[in-house]
Amino acid sequence: YFEESEKLKEAEMSGELPAELKQFITEIKASRLPIIKQKREIVKFVRNHLKYSNSREAWEYYTAKPAEYFTRIWERGEADCKVANDLACRALAEIDNDFQYVAGFYVKEKGQDGEAVLHSGNGHAWLKIWDHIRRRAIKLDATPKGDPTIDQEEQERELEVELEVELEYARQATRVDRR
What we know:
This protein is of the alpha+beta class. It has helices at 6-14, 19-30, 35-49, 56-64, 69-76, 81-92, 152-159, 163-178, and strands at 51-52, 78-79, 99-105, 123-131, 136-140.
């Protein structure tokens, strides 16, 4: 499932975005919000448009025409963590390239002795976004609601940092840079 052809990898870097998503990105860029807030809003927009599914049929549909990968995802509206974050990565590339796609494991289950329980259902993908204001990477995840492997409340908190908090960090960073 995570194995991809070179042709698909190329589409993931440069494929056409759906018109509705392009319009949203244009509007968010014009908003003059801090870049980190723009990125959060794009990831939320992608996440909220999609329904969680790890359907093999959907994956085969998306990859059947790599040049249409992103538009097919948007039209069908079904995605697992990999597909949703692929789309979010492509959308974020319209802002800048200060992000990283991460594929790994999300382990929330513990064994009797407190050790992590790792199994095939722990596989997960998410994004690391560079926050210029705080000067550190933050986790954002476009995975639609319903993925049984992740903590939905934690995901919501990561996507909902208040604008006032980000603006205050921006003001502080500006003061420090001026010194």
